[in-house]
Structures
1.
Amino acid sequence: MRDVLDDIEQWQSAGHRVALARVVAVIGSGPREPGAAMAVNDDGEVAGSVSGGCVEGAVVAEALEVLACGEPRLCTFGYSDDEAFSVGLTCGGTIRIFVEPLD
Amino acid sequence: MDGPFSLVRDCLRAEKPVALVTVVELVPHEGSEDVLPRLGAKLVVRPDAEPMGSMGEANLDRVVIRDARGALDAGQSVARHYGPHGEARREDITAFIEVFAAPRRMLIFGAVDFTAALVRIAKVLGYHVTVCDARPAFATAVRFPEADEVVVDWPHRFLAKVADRLGPLDAICVLTHDHKFDVPALLAALDTKVGYLGAMGSRSTHEGRIRRLRAEGVEPERIQQIMSPIGIDIGARTPEETAVSICAEIISQRAGVMAPSLRDGSGPIHQRESS
């Protein structure tokens, strides 16, 4: 989270609303450790990352929804045969990401 | 930012350890009328201060705070499961205990060209970096602008002041390769709990150092803890490449992964140019 603090402060002082997404669990092979964080503002601007670029796009969409509804949520991203075309990690692992509004 | 986050931010800015506990999943027990905390509920736990926030149930708070203090001691983030009143072996509540440890420290003894490169690479890796050298003309903040701290002192005297704050995630790199400075520095460094101790110099420099340390009564197996010649064998030549080789050795030692350390090889550490 250290790496996104400055961006969060800048956005908030400019009047933006911000959502924070954090990796809270990694099952199997995953690119980032628990605690990896990404901040998204209400314009869809992004700071930080939660994977090797595999799920960031989907997390931005989740973050914007969280800002819209005001409720936090736990998202799971994995890869399995029956969801071969959905968003997942090419490394075969599963990550769980907690997304919450920062206000 | 609201209360818990701004407290965490202040701790991070002050480089103080802190744990942020967040309820990230709720799976109510079927038929249970227990009240669960809200999703996203938070507690902020620091080693020497009152916790901030609440999960809304005294017993749950007590157990979660205890676990957060344990995670802080271990320096490791962890997800834990609890019942509504903090019961173990229940999975109603999943809390993510995110630990922000104080940054790892690297002490670099000797203010030489290799030092400037090592400071830069160590900063990329997130270390709090101190450069220490007894010579005021060399140990200046101007020469090492990226260092968190530049100290003019004899390394062993500086170590006496900070030794009790050093732990297994910290590193000491002795780059003086001058027996006058590095023998007392290594004697003091061997008495700390740092996870990595490296000393620059050729194999023959290190042989001389070993003789002097033996003469000071240091056991051979303790001398063997010193990584020297310093770094892994990647054919590094420049100060920057050498800094990468040193940091790679620190990472591999912490991870318990075998890497070809120069210490364990033989022959010249720099291959001669073939003509």
2.
Amino acid sequence: MGMYILRRLALVIPILFFMSIVTFALWNLAPGDPIDSLINPEELEKLGQYPDLLKDLRQAYGLDKPIWERYLIWLREALQGNLGYSFVRHIPVVEVLGERIAPTLRLTLAAMAISLLLGIPLGVVSAVRQYSLLDYILTFLVFIWNSVPGFFIALSMVYIFSIRLKWFPAIGMNTTGAPPSLWDDLRHLILPATALGLEGVASLLRYTRNSLLDVLRQEYVTMARAKGLSESVVLLRHALRNALLPVVTILGLRIPSLFGGALLIEVIFNWPGMGRLSIQAMQQQDYNLILGSLLFFGTLTLVANLVTDIAYAYVDPRIRYDEA
Amino acid sequence: MPMWTRASAMMKPNHSSAVQALEQAVRRSKGDSPGNRAWRRFRRHRLALLGSIVITIMLIACYPLADLLGGWPRDGINLDAIGKPPGYLGHLLGTDMAGRDLWTRLLHGGRISLSVGIIATSIRMALAIFLGGIAGFYGGRIDNLIMRFTDAMMLFPTFVVLIMVVTYLKPSIYNVMIVLGILGWEGTARLIRGQILSLKNQDYVLAARTVGVPEMGILFTHLLPNTMSVLVVAATFGVAGGVLTEAGLSFLGLGVQLPTPSWGNMMNSAQTLNILEQHWWIWIFPGLATAISVLAINFIGDGLRDALDPRGMDR
């Protein structure tokens, strides 16, 4: 197991390197550099009298060096936990990210909890009552859910629950100026987390249903029934445990799309998270920040995948990565 | 001459019931190609049939008939109707904040959104066939290299990378098509590789090799055509996914650029609460159009999967 983790980590690091090199190259080779975007074009005319000023500025920021040298400098600093300064915000990237990570994690974790709490029980019901009316309705709903854009569901939820019914606030993470309270936070969290989580419900429901149906056909389930165990014991103790194993991998595979969805949801709900931050950074060509947020998303995705795989091996003793 | 005619000729005098049943079975199987059988099963999938009808109507309305049905110029601005509700001054679905007719733009937007989905999927399928086919066919080191690359691509947070690349290239309809196509071939490539792996050791491949068919010929004329059913299903779901992703990108303003309409960018203005609240028709109709078309395509995909699944042959 230890070997396996090491080998997987050995795969993660080159991918992160690759991502950082490509991103760095892309944004550094693009026409225009941060200095250009800092200066108002109208002011630039006046600067014509000081031809050395722009050159000096570029020199001060190290932008006159060749690209590979700049990358190495960036890398050296990044390895020490310094991702440079945001050109637009004038504060260290690490600081900007630090502020935004917690809101994004709060949103995505809540969304995942909603997906699990709804998706798995509904999947179980759907499998146990296979071909019942409920099963058909749920299957149909999964279809609809997979077909409606997540952000459209989010927009509709804002329209219905906060504009028309006024149950929940439409934007932000908490009421500005109000004293922080758990209730206020929750009220702000419910809509975005549900909107994001519902996308996951559909796939979890489907996987749980199919996986449980497979398991229910196994001989040890027949055996358990033959022993005279009650149906609930058969289901919960014998079948469900095994049925949920493949679902663990689905959780891991969903993480990239979870962040992708969070991006749209954060924009709609004005959520001060990583997703909205990275879109702003890209629009402002704030490329230290772009690199930083991309690395954050990349690292988190890779680590989540690794954790999923390890968890899978842990819960399923049949899996032995070392022998493979 | 097939066996059954000889048998029936021999037993002609007393036409036993067994022979009759046999002849009947043969008559029934006339014109019973795999294609016919698949079509029969597809027809039985009512939702898939409904989906095909809906999509056909949408395609006809959006492509050849958009100008005829719309009634207004696509980007034409009616200064007397800025952000007016459905029905106002003959605007069937109302107008947007620039005074453009929503029904006309919905039709033209469908043309753009569906085209993006279809072209992105074509690029994606071409990449998947090429990489998956090569990996499965040659195996060994090439397979290992391609599959590790595929694994790595699968770990990327696709939507984030997508947004980065599109922003970098400057958002436009063509960039969206290309980038959507280049990212997202991984799943299908794996699928095709698996198919090729299981097909390449079959006897007919050995036979083809024996009669001297070159390697590339075996891959392209004997192996890949047999993955067609898997491909068709993957491509159908791919178009649905492409339409959804385009909608997301354009909603953020990073996809198709105004004034060219797409279902996604028609919803873009709903990011402000005022429009979300006061002008619901601006975002609800494109949203519904996206949902209905994607749902229809997904139904078709589901029907195709049922129809083309070889395990369902006896149904």
